[in-house]
């Protein structure tokens, strides 16, 4: 799929909005998943890869989840996963035999409906120079991404603390 817009609307048979069942490339495109009571997009590419580059996956299906990777790998590269906050479960997730990797300047964009410690932490992380900026609430699938962001933030804070301590040691006010 290249330079395209695909809109998936509800139909009579609609537990999943759409499925991707083979190695694929989604480039410079938008998929609007308006359907799917269990997931908007379900991926089943055992041994294969779906690469999403410079694209947007927009979930307004209001089902349990948005992007569900059952088997295979999904690489999100310089792209956006966007949700409207109506999913009862995770906006994105991978099962045991699937994976999702964020590279480049990728973004997960969801509305914050209440302030939680995770929301505050994510807002703090979002202000750092990360490739993946998150606006998630307490989705358990985000823990891995947040932990990775925390390790980067810890390194940055350690450098800042060292720099601050060095300034205190070298800059003594004159009486």
Brief summary of the model shown:
The chain has 175 residues and is α/β, with parallel strands linked by helices. It is built from two helices and eleven strands.
Could you name the key traits of this structure?
175 residues; alpha/beta; six-stranded parallel sheet; five-stranded parallel sheet; 11 strands; 22% helix; disordered C terminus
Please tell me about this protein's structure.
This protein is α/β, with parallel strands linked by helices and 175 residues long. Helix content is 22%, strand content 40%. The chain contains 2 helices and 11 strands; from the N terminus they run ββββββββββαβα. It has helices at residues 117-126, 143-170, and strands at 5-8, 16-20, 24-27, 30-33, 39-53, 56-59, 65-77, 80-83, 92-103, 107-109, 133-134. The strands form 2 sheets. Strands 1-4-6-8-10-11 form a 6-stranded parallel β-sheet. The longest helix is centred in the last third of the chain and has 28 residues, at 143-170. The N and C termini lie far apart (69 Å).
Give the arrangement of secondary structure elements.
Layout: E1 5-8, E2 16-20, E3 24-27, E4 30-33, E5 39-53, E6 56-59, E7 65-77, E8 80-83, E9 92-103, E10 107-109, H1 117-126, E11 133-134, H2 143-170
Parallel strand pairs: 1-4, 2-5, 3-5, 4-6, 5-7, 6-8, 7-9, 8-10, 10-11
Strand content: 35-45%
Task: Compute the number of strand runs.
Answer: 11
- Continuous helix count: 2
Distance between the termini: 69 Å
Whole-number average pLDDT? Answer: 74
The helix/strand series, from N terminus to C terminus, equals EEEEEEEEEEHEH
* Lateral strand order in the biggest sheet: 1-4-6-8-10-11
Largest sheet: 6 strands, parallel
Helix vs. strand class: alpha/beta
Instruction: Categorize the overall geometry.
Output: globular
Q: Measured on Cα atoms, how large is the radius of gyration? A: 19 Å
Overall helicity: 10-25%
Which regions contain 5 or more consecutive residues with pLDDT less than 50? Answer: 114-142, 152-173
